[in-house]
Amino acid sequence: MPLPRAAQRQRGLALLFKFCVLVSLILVMAWSTASSADERDLVAKQTQQWLMAKYDTNGDSIISVDEISQKREKMFSYMDDNGDGRVSIDEYALLDAKKRALIVRARFTKLDANADGILTDEEYIEYYGSFGAFDLDGNGKITSDEINSDTSATSTQVATSPAPKCFLWLCVRSSAH
């Protein structure tokens, strides 16, 4: 039996409130790690783009209660593997396993430079060895100054390595070499 209109509205407002709290927490955590106003502006812009990509399903640059509800319902139906309207611990665990598999595949794709499905020692060293090209003072940390520095070592490393395209934790390396 569908909920009365007032109850649906109240439920939608509660959902919108939770969404706003989530966005606020994300922004506070991101801003706390940024050291300058420019970095905070960049983090805010990236967060906004991420939220729009995730929740603005109709592309109108506005996130509505309906879009949040649709996203939540879609996620629930994705978790409900057998379609009984309920999510068991086994179904939830299956979803977690699928997420983990995606993360592992994304990490492997980053490392597999020639995209042959096999990770070689050279590919592993090439990917993780690039750290040294950016850590100019050799202290084991990469600062924003080192990233922004235009040294020949950094320029050469960036020029010879295909840049992965990333969105949050998911990165894909171009197959064109």
UniProtKB/TrEMBL annotation:
<protein>
    <recommendedName>
        <fullName>EF-hand domain-containing protein</fullName>
    </recommendedName>
</protein>
<feature type="domain" description="EF-hand">
    <location>
        <begin position="67"/>
        <end position="102"/>
    </location>
</feature>
<dbReference type="Pfam" id="PF13202">
    <property type="entry name" value="EF-hand_5"/>
</dbReference>
<dbReference type="GO" id="GO:0005509">
    <property type="term" value="F:calcium ion binding"/>
</dbReference>
<dbReference type="InterPro" id="IPR018247">
    <property type="entry name" value="EF_Hand_1_Ca_BS"/>
</dbReference>
<dbReference type="InterPro" id="IPR011992">
    <property type="entry name" value="EF-hand-dom_pair"/>
</dbReference>
<dbReference type="InterPro" id="IPR002048">
    <property type="entry name" value="EF_hand_dom"/>
</dbReference>
